[in-house]
Design a protein that fits this description.
Distance between the termini: 28 Å
Strand content: 15-25%
Largest sheet: 3 strands, mixed
Shape: elongated
Number of strands: 5
Strand order of the largest sheet: 1-4-5
Helix content: 25-40%
């Protein structure tokens, strides 16, 4: 999860919730405060990769056509 967060923030996304992405419970813990990332863009790993953890990527769009395009272009989207 940290790699996805670091990649997104290095490319311009911000963690918009307080303490998002922080590991709690000690150095061996796998418990992380959810991270809400905004804005997420197609060049970020979190945009394309499926996350199995508490990350919420927020992607901007201008119209419903843009949303449908996102769905068609992704490898897990509607064909």
């Amino acid at each position: 999860m940290k790699e996805l967060i670091e990649d997104a923030t290095s490319k311009g996304a911000k963690i918009i919730n307080e303490n998002g992405g922080t590991i709690v419970g000690g150095s061996e813990s796998t418990l992380m405060i959810p991270a809400v990332l905004y804005p997420v863009t197609p060049d970020m790993k979190v945009y394309e990769e499926e996350q199995f953890g508490p990350i919420v990527p927020i992607v901007e769009y201008d119209s419903i056509d843009t949303v449908l395009q996102y769905g068609r272009e992704g490898k897990y989207g509607q064909q």
